[in-house]
Amino acid sequence: MTTVSNQTHAISINPFNGEQIGHYAYESAEQLDAALARSAKGYAGWRRTSVAQRAQLMIALAKALRDNAGQMAEMISLEMGKPITQARGEVEKCAQLSEWYAEQGPAMLAPEPTLVKNGSACIEYRPLGAILAVMPWNFPIWQVLRGAVPTLLAGNTYVLKHAPNVMGSAYLLLDAFKRAGFPQGVFEVINVTPDGVSKAIADPRIAAVTLTGSVRAGTAIGSQAGAALKKCVLELGGSDPFIVLNDADLDAAVQAAVIGRYQNTGQVCAAAKRLIIEQGVVEAFTRKFVEATRKLVVGDPLSAETYIGPMARFDLRDELDQQVQATLAEGATLLLGGKKAEGTGNFYEPTVLADVTEQMTSFRQELFGPVASIITARDARHAVELANDSEFGLTSTIYTANVDLAQQITGELETGGVFINGYSASDPRVAFGGVKKSGFGRELSHFGVREFCNAQTVWLDRH
């Protein structure tokens, strides 16, 4: 009889009821070697296909995703608790991503002529090889494909090491690539321990590494990639500021703040975690925000009415609760929630903390769950100071009727993205990534296509 444990298997636990729904044996060194060999062999052929051919396969991938959207969305909901409506939206967003890059991506890889005095020169975008991707559980399909699609379009191959609790989603994604007609080895899935990840990074068949995850994981992976002299892209944590100034449309700001904080049960790197409200409207904003939060439907993630499901992992709920209790002990005011929900499900009550200041836990740390922190700013300048007083720098949001002022503020904010009168999102049309401890490198837009390219100079007849 096979013994199943976290040391031997990747285990999927349904966070709604605590039941095990899948276990996947970690691969041996020989199996890892075989996967890397397939990826290397796949790269030899894939890099020589035309960009137009790759684009056609992206269209086929979009169809494969839509054809199996129901099963994929249900797997996402079962494995990590995402409400089914949001899970379906995630799959559809991935299909649209694939179509967008099929249409727009080839131009991003076209040679760029450069003016020179003698001869002719251009910059060609060549692939690097097999890219190892260590991905998280919070968007089991989107996090993977927003990196994989542009990376593959550029002619690289992609080796996915997914989070242990969403391996069912990983294998459904692998099946989608097969049904779309991608050649063997172009998209591989490996199920390995951290030691296996280290071996893969050191393996010469891996050309570069990308990771979306925690600062701790990014530090470990980044140091290993550096030791191997391999490029890496890191998309790490965030404690994103959501600034509301006195002249803002409060109803619009509240609606955006609720979505920006509580979508995906608050488990989003770029969520609106620190609500920084100018003092003239903080009382009205807080009242409206609490009222709106009370109306959110908490429940079974497979129910179409549910907006907040269970948190993905029981240990992360414990960590979140410790952060909330620490913040309250430090002097914050509890306006809503503030505790684990009773019952078997891994629920945390939608929580609103007010009177949060710079020294408190929920200001200084990332809270990865359905908890909002409300911070009062004296004025716009103070709001910017509070926003920048963080080790993170992923995205930020500003709500104000004065767009000229907002444009000025954007230059002062130390974040990879700034959203004016709209909550943050990752979108293929714009670059996504952070600064400071939120990581480095960019995904999406043309940056995502070229991030793992060799920008090769070709100069003819230089005298």
From TrEMBL:
Domain of life the protein comes from: Bacteria
Taxonomic placement: Bacteria, Pseudomonadati, Pseudomonadota, Gammaproteobacteria, Pseudomonadales
CDD domains attached to this UniProt entry: ALDH_SSADH1_GabD1
Family: Belongs to the aldehyde dehydrogenase family.
Domain Aldehyde dehydrogenase: 8-458
Keyword Oxidoreductase on entry: yes
Name the UniProt record assigns to this protein: Succinate semialdehyde dehydrogenase
Organism, scientific name: Pseudomonas asplenii
PANTHER family: SUCCINATE SEMIALDEHYDE DEHYDROGENASE [NAD(P)+] SAD
InterPro entries in UniProt: Ald_DH/histidinol_DH, Ald_DH_C, Ald_DH_CS_CYS, Ald_DH_N, Aldehyde_DH_dom, ALDH_GabD1-like, GABD/Sad-like
One Pfam family, short name: Aldedh
Keywords: NADP, Oxidoreductase
One GO MF term: succinate-semialdehyde dehydrogenase (NAD+) activity
